[in-house]
Amino acid sequence: MRKFIFLVAALAFTHLAHADRLDDIKSRGSLICGVYSGVQPFAFQDATTRELQGYDVDICKALGTKMGVKTDIKMVALEARIPELQQGRVDVLAAVLGYSAARAEQIAFSDTYFLGRQVIAVKGAGPFTKRDDLNGKRISTIKGSSSIPILQNVLPAATPVAYDTVSAAFTALVQDKVDGFVATEVPVRGLMDKLGAEASQLKLLEPPVAEEHWGLGIRKGESALEKAVNDALVSLEKSGELDAIFNKWMGPNTIYQLKRNFKVAPIPR
Amino acid sequence: MIEILRTYGTLLLIGSYPEGPLGGLALTLILSVLGVGLAFPLSIVLALCRISAYAVLRVPATAIVYLVRGVPLIMLVFWSYYLVPVLIGRTVSAMSTLVVTLVVYQAAYMAEIVRAGIEALPNGQTEAARSLGLGYARTLQAVILPQALFNMLPSLLSQFISTVKETSLGYVISVQELTFAANEVNSSLLIRPFEVYLILSLTYFAVCLLLTRAAHLLETAILRRRAGRSTTHAYATHDQVQPG
Amino acid sequence: MNVFSFLTPDHVAVLARGLSFTAAITIASWLLAMGLGMALAILNESGGRVARGVVAAFIAYQRNIPVVAHLLLWYFGVPALLPKPVQSWINVHNGELISVIAIGLCLAAYFCEDIRSGFRSIPATQHEAARALGLSFLQSMRWVVVPQALRIALPALVNHTVLLFKTTALAMAIGVAELTYVVRELENQTFRTFEAYSVATVVYLMISLALMGAGAMLARRYRIPAR
Fold first, then answer.
1. Closest by Cβ to B82, choosing from A49, A83, A89
2. Backbone angles phi, psi at C152, to 5 degrees
3. Is residue A108 domain-shared with residue A228, that is, in the same domain?
4. For an interface test with B, which of C26, C58, C67, C73 has the most B Cβ atoms less than 10 Å from its Cβ?
5. Which of A34, A89, A258, C155 could form an SS bridge with B243, CB 3.0 to 4.6 Å?
6. What is the mean predicted confidence (pLDDT) over C120-135?
7. pTM of the model
8. Positions of chain A with pLDDT under 50
9. Is the dihedral of CA C10, A142, C93, B72 positive or negative?
């Protein structure tokens, strides 16, 4: 009998001991937000001030303000995004994270905060005119990217070659080490723009490889934090702040000239 | 190339400090010092276990050394990254996991160096000490280890140089050391990879060459002190494993 | 956390393919490193100050820079300098070829140092006697000095061979689908971290131990009795 009571008490204790992530954030007074740096315009370092800025960074900061805490931005490697979140090194991931069923088994996704089209970039002078021409060819991507399982479905005969960073994968295309580079359209166009005069060397192929809903990553089981994040996103949309952030980085005054084409809503499964 | 250095020099040297955590070359050096500094005591313990008369100490120590030497460092980095938080039950920064990996890796290699140093001493030393009535621990502390470690100093310094090079693997787990900073610079510039990576290589070259010269000077000084005592030739600097 | 359920036929096929790349790169780099290391060591013995300076500079450059930096410079940096036709020729198997070059050159420096210390352990009288008997410099090297030096340097050479094998894991940084690369891919897609890395660790460990064992056997067979 005594053992049973002890066991129950121990179990109760462990339940109590597991403090809610949201409470942790509130008591700590800061939200640790993981971003993937090196992708314009989502998160990148300004050359002179060495400060991180971008769409993902601004969303993080806005979230922090809505929750009434300050925001700590932490850079994570693309492949290490999900482990960093699962191990609790970051509270929230705003790291160019696209929804996939496999990922949803590991972590929880917030509502949509960006809708991305994954396209393949190729050399303009090359023989490829549409997406399916690249079946059987080498396509560069980044380790840990969702492009790899997507490619396996869409272009099963293509060989994905995964590099550690976005710039490595892009440079591989520029240097003709691969036939194509697959990534979300917006950062690809940002990279192409960096090439300057040689930007016309590259072109994007239609149709897109996939349309991906991006969500903020939250550890599984943290329902209070999930709710807080989604509430914050909805209120950002209502107040027009989301539009402001979107237009700042991808709107009519930027090279991308996009209009916000998504609503903040739970990601369709 | 000079403009790259001018624009991005600070990023390469100290990372995004103070806008962010310390990084770049400064972090590389700190990681190396921590790695070797913490590995040193551990390596002495491992070496003593390796030559211990008790199998319960010798066998696990030998197994650890062979395990660490037989697996690529990048594998050990991944293991630490995923395993350390589980083992100690709370989250650990990426920098700490890299330090842990370096400590374990260098401890195994340095243990072999220390072991070679101890075994190179003539048996007469131990015998004399024991016959003077000194116990096992006291013999080690007063007679064996000082000599062995002094003789092995150049090899140990070259392990430090190896550690500086090994920190370059940190970029894979997003530790913002020098190679990570160089990749950042390359992401910003995109069209000048040769210059960026040449700067990266030359920076490592400069740092390690300076340290190698220091190791040479140390080695000459030690050889002069040992002159006349024995004719064993000095170990080549930064051999990651010693012969035999 | 079941390793055997992880080893499905697809996964095993993927791992085997990765291992075949590792093996190919190891063998190719080893041949390059050994050949170049030997050539540089002999050059160092024969030549005057210029030759020795070149060898010393080469060794200093290769050994003071991490392999990752070498790989990144060779893979992304150097092709940007080459003319276009050469670039396209390299591009077909670029990752594998460049990793062989980068790793081979880097380890050539280590092998050269080992062979040189082998040379140092052989009394100069051996070489002089061979020359006195009428053998040319290269002949005396080939038939008298090098065989002895190799036997003496064998333990260090074996150690550095194991090091070369482990260094091929870094080729994953430039997109080569060797064992570490495919294991990371499997881990990213299946999220089964522990199983994936365990399998890779065991494979690396077994091959390293096999190499060390083979080295020990060679050392016993070719031991010079008088030493």
1. A83
2. -70, -40
3. yes
4. C73
5. C155
6. 89
7. 0.83
8. 10-17
9. negative
